[in-house]
Amino acid sequence: MNTLKTTMLLAALTALFLALGFTLGGRAGAMIALMIAIGMNFFTYWNADKIVLRMHHAREVDDASAPEFVGIVRDLARRANLPMPRVYLVDEPHPNAFATGRDPQHAAVAATTGLLQMLDRDEIAAVMAHELGHVRNRDTLIMTMVATIAGAISMLANFGLFFRGSDGRGAGLAGLLAVLVAPFAAMIVQLAISRTREYGADRASAEISGNPRALASALAKLAQGAQRIPNPVAQRMPAASQLYIVPGLSRGDSLFSTHPDTGNRIAELERMAGEMGVPEMRADNGSTGVWPSRPQSTARASVPRTGGRRPAARLVSRSALDPLRRD
After folding, report:
1. Does the pLDDT at position 303 exceed 60?
2. Fewest beta carbons less than 10 Å away: which of 77, 140, 157, 298?
3. Burial, 69: exposed, middle or buried (Cβ in 10 Å; 0-12, 13-18, 19+)?
4. Percent of the chain whose predicted confidence (pLDDT) is above 70
5. How many Å apart are CA 126 and CA 202, to the nearest integer?
């Protein structure tokens, strides 16, 4: 269903581009704008992983520096029949995770230290399965295609503000409306596709990890944590919000949201859990469900400080996953 919806939205975006192109500049104008947009996004597609990881100051980890975290990702990749991706940690208290890379052979997955501190092992595995779901579904390629078409539409609209065809295309009220409305409509469709891909990755997580309720619990904690703890990258670059498993900037559930409403995602995961026969998770107060009043994990990441003196004594509470090393 999500694949069909994405296909229909891509078709709508393409139709919007063609209509705007012929309205303003005819076939030649549309092709010029499309080629420029393809060139820009081709560069982004081949270099997106480097750009995203550098932007987050992510540090690659391996079996020596984070054996259990890397081991979890390796086990999930094996279950998903995917090549082992590169694994990164981001030294950031904001709890989130993301995937990047142009294809499964060049994929990378990353989690923040804040996420490792907030979630338990099963929840972390479910989150990383979600990110591997993006890799398996080739969402990076899909969103690059979407960005190419949306970029071409915006470029055509900018041309239309200053130029018009020799045959009079782009003149009059219809041309003005096309210039103003088309980029807005393209943005709405682009965000709709982004929301659809999140549902697809949630379903992939349930299939790969076999535990949709762990992802539901993780989403509840992450949504609460993301509201409390600012995301400096998303604050500098709001467009980066669509990278994350929960939005870096909360806008609620609307046409302008990069992600579906967390409650709707949890409800869909609960439905899948019922179909798979996964037992309900029990909160500390004895109630069932996935909306915790506080983080339930008793094993949190012990992340050493980047500056100052190191603690003299080893912390008693250790994470099931190794923390980011800085030696």
Report:
1. no
2. 298
3. buried
4. 64
5. 9
